[in-house]
């Protein structure tokens, strides 16, 4: 970790997070001791197989469920154990949540622009230009007076992103933001998230099944499996342990992050018996 990383306190900090669902007398451990620290301005992609615990982690971060154990701090607010009133304050200012079903973020009979203005708390009313927010997500002017029920799925997704970033939250949590989209629509959404990150400094934590989305976002990729963080690939790289025979074990997690055909480079890791694997870029020899 660099000196700068040490100097800036994390915007999201999770310690020993455990989430147990009680189901007909049976306990399901969805999260089994998750520790996570996210710096301001980072884009984090949460990846992993179905049932890994990704949505549960996002829900706990969003304050939508109280964890069975552990601590969660977001933008200086202690979320665990908060009462609903204080959580609403946090969600209305420092934290924004983009649900998987974005229709829940929007009112269908209001226009695109009205949906943006609607979410503004009193302190922000009139102080932000809705068009500036719509510019960031890339919705053209002619679509802004249209009711949301008549626009395409991709524009609806962009409207929902605009509505969530309109209050200038420190942290945006997004559950599968591109899941119902394809091709250029996916790119429109990743571009919108990247612009929010660059222009507003929004820290983004997004659950995604799509590693191409993680790559397009140039995200720190965190792989979750069986309720634990298995891999944390900062800056598109990951540290792997070399076996005694000098080979590198290609586990499912590594394959998940670097699917067959992905060009990678290797360099020695922090410890003598580790290597850092990272996606090769155009500049790599
Ligand atoms: N409300 C619930 N009640 C009981 N068990 C649940 C509940 N929600 C999730 N689980 C269980 O917790 C574990 C983690 O689920 P979670 O939805 O967080 O995983 P996920 O990685 O988001 O999966 P997916 O990619 O399929 O959405 C799974 O075993 C799941 O069956």
Automatic annotation (TrEMBL):
GO molecular function, one term: transmembrane transporter activity
Keyword DNA-binding among UniProt keywords: no
Entry GO CC: plasma membrane
Identification of the protein by name: ABC transporter domain-containing protein
All copies of domain ABC transporter, residue ranges: 12-251
InterPro entries registered for this protein in UniProt: AAA+_ATPase (IPR003593), ABC_transporter-like_ATP-bd (IPR003439), ABC_transpr_LolD-like (IPR015854), P-loop_NTPase (IPR027417)
Alphabetized UniProt keyword annotations: ATP-binding, Nucleotide-binding
Taxonomy of the source species: Bacteria, Bacillati, Actinomycetota, Actinomycetes, Micrococcales
Source species of the chain: Flexivirga endophytica
One Pfam family, short name: ABC_tran
Domain of life: Bacteria
SUPFAM superfamilies documented for this protein: P-loop containing nucleoside triphosphate hydrolases (SSF52540)
């Amino acid at each position: 970790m660099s000196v700068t990383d040490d100097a800036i306190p994390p915007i999201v900090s999770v310690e020993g997070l455990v989430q147990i669902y009680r189901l007909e007398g049976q306990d399901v451990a969805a999260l089994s001791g998750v520790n996570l620290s996210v710096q301001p301005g980072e884009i984090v992609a949460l990846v992993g197989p179905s049932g890994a615990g990704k949505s549960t982690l996002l829900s706990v971060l969003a304050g939508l469920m109280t964890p069975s154990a552990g601590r969660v701090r977001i933008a200086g607010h202690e979320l665990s154990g908060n009462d609903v009133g204080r959580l609403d304050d946090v969600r209305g200012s420092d934290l924004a949540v983009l649900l998987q079903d974005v229709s829940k973020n929007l009112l269908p009979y209001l226009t695109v622009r009205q949906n943006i203005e609607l979410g503004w708390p009193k302190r922000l009313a009139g102080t932000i230009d809705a068009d500036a927010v719509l510019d960031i997500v890339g919705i053209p002017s002619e679509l802004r007076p249209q009711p949301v029920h008549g626009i395409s799925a991709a524009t609806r997704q962009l409207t929902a992103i605009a509505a969530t970033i309109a209050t200038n939250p420190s942290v945006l949590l997004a559950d599968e933001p591109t899941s119902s989209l394809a091709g250029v629509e996916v790119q429109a959404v990743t571009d919108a998230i990247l612009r929010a990150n660059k222009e507003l400094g929004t820290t983004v934590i997004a659950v995604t099944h799509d590693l191409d989305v993680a790559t397009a976002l140039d995200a720190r990729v965190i792989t979750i499996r069986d309720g634990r963080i298995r891999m944390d690939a900062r800056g598109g790289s990951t540290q792997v342990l070399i076996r005694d025979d000098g080979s590198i074990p290609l586990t499912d997690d590594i394959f998940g992050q670097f699917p067959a055909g992905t060009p990678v480079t290797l360099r020695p890791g922090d410890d003598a018996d580790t290597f850092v694997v990272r996606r090769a870029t155009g500049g790599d020899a």
